């Protein structure tokens, strides 16, 4: 598998309405933060998600795993990275590290994803090439 060497990263603020009764970030928001970072990474790579969908393709998550290491609380800032890993099949992996500004890893979110042909309702056989063909900066997608 090929792994990007410089991960894309987005800084986010933990908002008070995202915390749960234990006063830390609700688990569902980790997935939303990862989705936000991945969308921002795709856009920074020059891929238009609107054009991707208009062309009949949609990214899908097939599996999501969250590993919690350190709580995030309301008012915290967190940097969410986005690293893409490519193999030879129909799926690829996207890994996100959630780091506090001091470098402490708060969580990791990992996805097994694919690119769905929206008409055939089947995964694209070579998602790596489909993404590369649309990216102006393929290195952000681990496609250097």
TrEMBL record:
InterPro entries cross-referenced by the UniProt entry: 4-hydroxybenzoyl-CoA_TE (IPR050563), HotDog_dom_sf (IPR029069)
Species assigned in the record: Actinomadura verrucosospora
GO molecular-function terms, A-Z: fatty acyl-CoA hydrolase activity
Family matches, as Gene3D superfamilies: Hotdog Thioesterase
Name of the protein in its database record: Thioesterase superfamily protein
């Amino acid at each position: 598998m090929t792994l990007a060497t410089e991960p894309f990263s987005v800084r986010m603020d933990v908002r008070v309405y995202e915390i749960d009764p234990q006063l830390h970030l609700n688990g569902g928001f980790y997935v939303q933060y990862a989705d936000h970072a991945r969308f921002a990474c795709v856009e920074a790579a020059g891929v238009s998600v609107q054009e991707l969908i208009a062309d009949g393709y949609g990214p899908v998550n097939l599996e999501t795993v969250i590993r919690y290491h350190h709580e995030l609380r309301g008012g915290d800032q967190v940097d969410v990275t986005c690293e893409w890993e490519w193999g030879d099949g129909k799926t690829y992996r996207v890994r996100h590290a959630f780091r506090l500004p001091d470098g402490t890893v708060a969580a990791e979110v990992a996805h097994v994803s694919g690119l769905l042909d929206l008409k055939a309702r089947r995964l694209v056989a070579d998602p790596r090439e489909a993404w590369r063909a649309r990216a102006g900066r393929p290195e952000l997608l681990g496609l250097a």
